[in-house]
Amino acid sequence: MPHDQDYLLRADDLACWFDVSPPWLERTLSRQPTQTLKAVDGVSLAVPRGSTLSIVGESGCGKSTLAKLLVGLVAPTRGTLRYGRNRKGGTLHPQMIFQDPYASLNPRWRVGNIVAEPIITLGLRASPADTRRRVDELLELVGLSASDASRFPHEFSGGQRQRISIARALATEAEFLVCDEPTSALDVSVQAQILNLMGDLQKEFGLTYVFISHNLSVVRHVSDRVAVMYLGRIVEQAAADELFESPKHPYTKMLLDTIPDLDDPRRDREPMAGEVPNPIMPPAGCTFHTRCGMVQERCRSVVPEVAVVGGREVRCHLVAAGV
Ligand code: SF4
C-alpha cells in the first residue's frame, strides 16, 4: 500500500442522508413517519496520487451524490474526508467535470472568460496579460485553439464543450478531478477522443481522477481501481484488471454480464435482473438480496460487513465465507 502521503484522497465511513419526508402538516395528518434517503451510507475509499478510481453502478445507486461529496459540493452526514496536499505542498482544489458540459458552462460568457474566471478568482496570475496567455495555453492543451476564446459555448459541439470544461478545471491548477459520467452524453467516437485527452493529461501532469460511470466498457479502459456501488454502499472494490477478470460479488457479476463480448458479439448477454429498489425503503439485510441468485436466509436480515478477500474488499456473506 502507498504511504499515507501518496494518497490524494481518503474517505472513511462517509455518509450522506437526505430528509425526503412530506411537509410536516401533511405528514402529521396522515401519520406518516419521517423518510430518509441514504444516498451514500458508509463509504470508505482511498485514491493514490496519479491514479484513476472508477465508481460504477446503475442509476440510483448514489454515485453522483458520492461524486459531489468528494469535491465538497454537499456536506457529509457522517464520516471523514481527507485530501492530500498538492505538489507544491499547498491546499488541493478538487474540481468536478459534469455529464452535461453545456449546463455547466455559462452560455452568456465567452469561452476565454469562462476559463479565465478561476485564474482570476484564485489569483493565479499576476496580470491580465498573463491570465490571457494562460487561457490560450489551456485551450491549446485541450485541443482547441487560442482564437476559440472569443466564441460562446453554443458555438461548439458537445465534445468541444467538454474540452472547455476540462480547460476550466485545469485553470485552477487542479490535480484532482472528479468526473461524473463525463462522456455519456457524447457520440462513441467523441467519447474516445475525450477519454484519450484525459489519459494524456493524466500522464503529462500526474492528475488523479475519480471517474463515475455506468458504462463498464469505458471503465475497463481508464481505471486502475474500481469500486462497485449498490444502494449507497460499495459492495466490491478491487484493482481494475482483477475485478474484470474474476468478479466476486453477485452484483458485480451481474453488471459485467451486460458488457458486449468483443470476441463473440452475437452471444446473448444476460439482461439485468430486476430493478434497483426504492432507495428510500431499501431491502433489509443485504440490500441486493431481492435480485441475487445466490440469496440465503440470513441475507434477508443481516447486513454483510466489508470482508477483505484475496486483496479486495467485498460485502457479501457468501464471498466472506469463501463460497
Ligand atoms: Fe447475494 Fe447474500 Fe451475497 Fe447479498 S449477501 S450478494 S444476497 S449472497
Provide the spatial order of strands within the biggest beta sheet. 5-6-7-3-8-9-11-10
CATH architectural arrangement of the domain at 4-94 and 174-252: 3-Layer(aba) Sandwich
Shape: globular
What is the CA-based Rg, rounded? 21 Å
Within CATH, the superfamily of the domain at 4-94 and 174-252 carries the name: P-loop containing nucleotide triphosphate hydrolases
CATH top level label of the domain at 4-94 and 174-252: Alpha Beta
Strand content: 15-25%
Which ranges are low-confidence, i.e. pLDDT below 50, for 5 or more consecutive residues?
A: none
Bound small molecules, which ones?
A: iron/sulfur cluster
Q: Distance between the terminal alpha carbons, to the nearest Å?
A: 27 Å
- The strand count comes to 11
Major sheet details: 8 strands, mixed
Order of helices and strands: EHEEHEEHHHEHEHEEHHEEH
**CATH fold naming of the domain at 4-94 and 174-252:** Rossmann fold
Q: What class would the helix/strand composition place it in?
A: alpha/beta
A few lines on this structure:
By secondary structure, this protein is α/β, with parallel strands linked by helices. It is built from 10 helices and 11 strands.
Question: What does this 3D model show about the protein?
Answer:
It contains ten helices and eleven strands. By secondary structure, it is α/β, with parallel strands linked by helices. The chain has a domain of about 170 residues: Rossmann fold, CATH 3.40.50. Strands 5-6-7-3-8-9-11-10 form an eight-stranded mixed beta sheet, with helices on both faces. A three-stranded antiparallel beta sheet has the order 2-1-4, with helices on one face. The longest helix has 18 residues. The mean pLDDT is about 90. The site of iron/sulfur cluster has 13 residues, from helix 10.
